[in-house]
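Need tokens for this chain, all 405 residues.
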Amino acid sequence: MNRAVAVTGIGLITPAGIGVEENWERICDGRGLATKDPELVGAAADISCRVPTFDAAEVVGAREVWRTDRFVQLALAAAKEAVADSGLDPGRWDGSRVGIVVGSAAGGVSTLETQHERFLSQGSKGVSALFHPMALVNMVSGRMAIEYAATGPNLVTATACASGATAIGVARDLLLSGACDVVLAGGTEAAVTPTFVTGFARMGALYSGTLPPEQASRPFDADRSGFVIGEGAGILVLERLTDARARGARVWARLLGYGATCDASHATSPHPTGQGIEDAMRLACRDAEVPSQDVQHVNAHGTSTRLNDATEASAIARLGSKRVAVTSTKGVTGHTLGAAGAIEAAYTVLSLARQTIPPTANLAQLDSEVRLDIVSGNPRAVALDHALSNSSGFGGHNASLLFGV
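Here are the structure tokens for all 405 residues:
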């Protein structure tokens, strides 16, 4: 059986913009987008990467805006673009053969914080009856199913900051097993809230330097000191390659392999040698029957934390490829948590489709421990056949997706 899966639709709503083209332009521009965030006044950190203003009413309807959390709204916006891009007509497909798999680390954390404040100030009568339908993490896939009459498998993956990548890997398995003919897969997050941000700051994970906000997220740089929190969503439409070709669909790229591991080492820190993410990359290559030495590009997890960047860099170096070019797009977007793996998978697909690698923003001086070819300064035009997209998360989760032209 042909095990290749086609990416036939892409939808993106991120700090880099609304839609694929705006995202690609700003990612290739290579400038950080972090700013002072007035909504984080009083929190232990006050910079973030937020999605530009968008009209949620156009996505969910004016009557539903106040009934849905922002993490659901972002996912629905990305899904709308992805489905339109795929050329599929939801009014004509067999919904029982359509699956939804979406990753999120935090779910409706904004709703949770708001309702907790109302409980403290107003008592039990202040808490909305819509609290749970808005906040529960599975509501994103449930809402998408309603929107697209998708009655097939419906799942949410929660592997912390690997959630979006895990969702795409699970979606691939559903297609190859024959359970679905089409899957909408990706990740979403809208967790830029005072309490959530303060939690990361208290554990020392966020940027703590004195540079201007737009320079704070600096993956692989010697002066990095932590990540900048972001929000956003990325959704891919996936189909079996044979089905996509049969209907004459435009194929952005092929999803060839998926590898998932757990460090089983520490609750929040990666394995000190990077063994977990190395194993995930090797599993993805083995799954695709592509030698790891043939990987030409890695879109790294690259969070801008000291430990993550160093361990991931050592793992990539051990793949054995002498011509692998590496980037981290988090220098532009910040870290979008559970959405990051899906957003960066989309950027990896675009790199293959456009034969261009975006630069790593804010890389002024490469860390001496990072012995890799890190793309910086300007986008790099290069002939690409295979590229990996890496994701890792608290709990030791690792996921790697191998894409090909």
